[in-house]
UniProtKB/TrEMBL annotation:
It catalyses: adenosine(1518)/adenosine(1519) in 16S rRNA + 4 S-adenosyl-L-methionine = N(6)-dimethyladenosine(1518)/N(6)-dimethyladenosine(1519) in 16S rRNA + 4 S-adenosyl-L-homocysteine + 4 H(+). Keywords: Cytoplasm, Methyltransferase, RNA-binding, rRNA processing, S-adenosyl-L-methionine, Transferase. Its EC number is 2.1.1.182. One of its GO terms (cellular component) is cytosol. The gene is rsmA. This is Ribosomal RNA small subunit methyltransferase A. Residues 17-183 form the Ribosomal RNA adenine methylase transferase N-terminal domain. Specifically dimethylates two adjacent adenosines (A1518 and A1519) in the loop of a conserved hairpin near the 3'-end of 16S rRNA in the 30S particle. May play a critical role in biogenesis of 30S subunits. It is an enzyme of class 2 (transferase). It comes from Candidatus Adlerbacteria bacterium GW2011_GWA1_54_10. Pfam families: RrnaAD.
Length: 246
């Protein structure tokens, strides 16, 4: 079967890295795992072998019969055909985890969908572009993406996955990115959550400009310990949260 470039399909079959993903998601017997883009079921097989219940959402209709046949005797497997970005997770009962070898081009959208969901996952593990993972978890400068992840959980790069581990090989290396301890503890009210993201987007709308020119409130910047000469990328999550309370 010819893979679709439009869906960003790069299958991973290397057992070492597949198990590394499952390890990062701390998958154990009795867990409920929502798998994004199972492809031909390589990661699915590892998750099921560990005793997890797997709900897999696959957009490529050609893969549905392959997955159904492969796991026809697995009672803990359910396949759903569709776009995961439109998938309603509100019916999920209890705590669940999210894992997947995802298309690079929807990384930000997927992180937003699950981290900001009304019913958040307990833990999220994605294979993403290495550069993006580093920007989120290790970057010295902040971005809208890094702040949007950190405000809900604790991102950590577990392991780099070389491009040669995939078929077909992408043009860049990947990384296993885990986000743990997901919650809304930073927001006491829904209005604060909304205000935080409005402020961050405003601050980064002209990220080369100093915040005193972008946000227009030098007195508030000083009150939370932010230099008037600072740019949006220079200040961390704690200060953005402090600013958003005003």
């Amino acid at each position: 079967m010819k893979l679709k470039k439009s869906l960003g399909q790069h299958f991973l079959h290397n057992a070492f890295y597949l198990n590394a993903v499952a390890d990062a998601a701390e998958v154990k017997k009795g867990d409920s795992v929502l798998e994004v883009g199972p492809g031909d079921g390589a990661l699915t097989e590892v998750l099921l072998a560990r005793g997890a219940k797997v709900i897999a959402v696959e957009k490529d209709a050609r893969l549905i019969p392959i997955l159904k046949e492969k796991f026809k005797n697995k009672k803990k497997f359910k396949i759903i055909e569709g776009d995961v970005l439109r998938y309603d997770i509100s019916y999920q009962l209890g705590k669940y985890k999210v894992a997947g070898n995802i298309p690079y081009y929807i990384t930000g959208a997927l992180l937003k969908k699950f981290l900001s969901a009304k019913l958040q996952p307990k833990l999220l593990v994605f294979l993403v572009q290495k550069e993006v993972a580093e920007r989120i978890a290790r970057g010295k400068k902040e971005s809208v993406l890094s702040l949007s992840v950190k405000v809900y959980g604790e991102p950590k790069i577990i392991k780099t996955v070389p491009r040669g581990a995939f078929y077909p090989a992408p043009k860049v290396d990947s990384a296993i990115l885990a986000v743990k301890n997901i919650s809304r503890k930073n927001f006491k009210r829904a209005t604060h959550e909304k205000k935080f993201f409005e402020l961050v987007r405003a601050g980064f709308s002209q990220k080369r400009k100093q915040l005193k020119n972008t946000l227009k409130h030098s007195d508030i910047l000083r009150s939370v310990g932010v230099s008037e000469n600072a740019r949006a990328e220079d200040i961390g999550l704690a200060q953005w949260l402090a600013l958003s309370k005003y």
